[in-house]
Amino acid sequence: MMEFRLNGEYVELCNLLKLAGIASSGGEGKALVAQGVVTVDGELERRKTAKIRAGQVVECHGQQVTVVS
After folding, report:
1. Residue 17's domain is classified under what CATH number?
2. Mean of the per-residue pLDDT values for the chain?
3. What distance lies between CA 56 and its chain's CA centroid?
4. Residue numbers of the domain that contains 59
């Protein structure tokens, strides 16, 4: 599990996937969400630009990212 530190109030899901190194680009992050392989707090997330805030946990392909403030 890795931690991602927020700079603001939230980060968009596709950008978080890129910044955490799970996706190589924002476009790849959007594709991962579209494929249905991304969960937020254990629930499937289909919104590519979902606002991810501190305390939430994102998982994709077995990699888990905890967002902290």
Report:
1. 3.10.290.10
2. 96
3. 9
4. 2-68
Distance, in Å, from the CA atom of 56 to the CA atom of 24, rounded to the nearest integer, reads 22
As for how many domains the chain has, the answer is: 1
Backbone angles phi, psi at 34, to 5 degrees: -65, -30
Supply the DSSP string of 1-62, one letter for each residue. Answer: -EEEE-SSS-EEHHHHHHHTTSSSSHHHHHHHHHTT-EEETTEE---TT-EE-TT-EEEETT
Contact between 38 and 48 under an 8 Å Cβ cutoff? The reply is no
Locus of tokens 């590519």 = 48
Tokens of 64: 């888990």
pLDDT higher than threshold 90 for residue 1: no
* pLDDT tens for each residue of 28-51: 999 999 999 999 999 999 999 999
